[in-house]
Design goal:
alpha+beta, 8-stranded antiparallel beta sheet, 7 helices
């Protein structure tokens, strides 16, 4: 695998990483990540000129990660030449399906399965229900093929996101990239670093990702009681207090971020489903633990059976960016201690992360995590 990475600056494009002997005409995939005002058809056309034989896989973000640095409302390209690994790219839009589950199921069925080793997912972050999308994908993932990725972002505006392949860039798109053969090795890690507090409670009334009651009590009222003075700052302060949801089947816990509150019907909308009967607890930010979780996720991602990765894809939650604020680069820089300067780092701040929490389990929607995927050709 050979890689070239560029980032936009005030003076134009700047190459921040390049393997010796990289040939732009041999490049097959370009990961294009940037602010919604930067990923334009004009920009994509210029990128296509540089990499004429590549598929441009694009997503809008809530912040870009390139070469161990954080950028905001810029444009980054990570051009990849796979020397030994075939790949297949599939795209679909939610407007052609009844729901996100059906979309995920259809995309996974289209993916050739013979010798399929890994799938990278980029999904719209506004129109897609991430939980249902992954349930659809997982339905026929009987071989437990590793799947990771993320949901596109729109800064802190939370309006609409874009995902695409080449010129097909629009809201509602989902892209799957399948990697094949014995020469590709993939690792993954995903951690949050949040602290739980308060008693465990049961979801007694919910509709998909909308929560109404905990322990047969008004969930919004309970939430405000725990927030104390922070309740006056809702909905913004909700980023500081996500909840954990237990997955008894896998003995794991997922973090769920609150997207909005509705005072009229006393409900809370989350970035992921909360089924009735689920066990949940409130969580709070611990800045040092959040930053250190990034290093632990990187350690997980290199605990697989290969040396330093060629490429590390870092997908972190927009909530972490807003909470860490001026310290946001610390969670990126800490990964450098694990991977080293030889590894190309690409990624973005998302509206949701996709990864198993531990090895050999199916992918799940994560919130408020640093999710890292490592790739190496051997």
């Amino acid at each position: 695998m050979k890689i070239e990475q560029k980032i936009t600056t005030d003076s134009g494009w700047q190459t921040v990483y390049s393997h010796e002997g990289f040939n732009q005409e041999l490049c097959q995939i370009v990961l294009v990540l940037g602010g919604k005002n930067n990923i334009t058809f004009e920009a994509l056309g210029k990128i296509k000129v540089d990499y004429p034989n590549a598929q441009l896989i694009s997503a809008t973000t809530a912040g870009e990660i390139a070469n161990y640095a954080f950028y905001d409302e810029q444009l980054s390209t990570t051009a990849i030449h796979l020397e030994k690994t075939p790949f297949v790219c599939e795209l679909a839009n939610i407007k052609d399906f009844a729901n996100s589950f059906d979309l995920g199921l259809d995309l996974f069925k289209k993916m050739p399965k013979d010798n399929l080793k890994y799938i990278f997912v980029l999904s719209d972050g506004g129109l897609i229900n991430g939980t249902e999308l992954l349930e659809g994908i997982n339905t026929e993932n009987n071989d437990e093929i590793l799947i990771t990725g993320g949901l596109a972002g729109d800064g802190s505006r939370f309006q609409s996101t874009l995902v695409g392949v080449d010129a097909n860039l629009e809201s509602g798109n989902v892209v799957l990239i399948g990697f094949y053969g014995e020469h590709i090795k993939v690792g993954h890690g995903s951690l949050g670093g949040w602290d739980e507090f308060g008693p465990e409670r049961i979801v007694t009334k919910s509709e998909k990702n909308v929560l109404f009651e905990l322990d047969n009590k008004n969930a919004l009222e309970l939430y405000k009681q725990y927030l104390g003075s922070y309740a006056d700052e809702l909905p913004g302060s909700a980023l500081l207090f996500p909840i954990s949801i237990s997955n008894d089947a896998q003995d794991t816990k997922n973090v769920r971020t609150i997207l909005s509150i509705d005072e009229s019907n006393q409900s809370m909308t989350f970035a992921g489903n909360l089924p009735e009967g689920s066990k949940v607890r409130l969580m709070k930010a611990n800045f040092d633990k959040i930053i250190n979780a990034s290093g632990s996720a990187a350690q997980q991602a290199v605990s697989f059976d290969f040396d330093k990765p060629d490429l590390a894809i870092l997908i972190s939650c927009v909530g972490r960016k807003l909470i860490l604020n001026d310290r946001v680069e610390e969670e990126i820089e800490i990964a450098k201690d694990i991977f080293g300067a030889e590894t190309c780092v690409s990624g973005f701040y998302s509206y949701g992360e996709i990864s198993p929490l531990v090895k050999s389990q199916k992918c799940e929607l994560q919130n408020q995590t640093m999710t890292i995927t490592t790739l190496k050709e051997i």
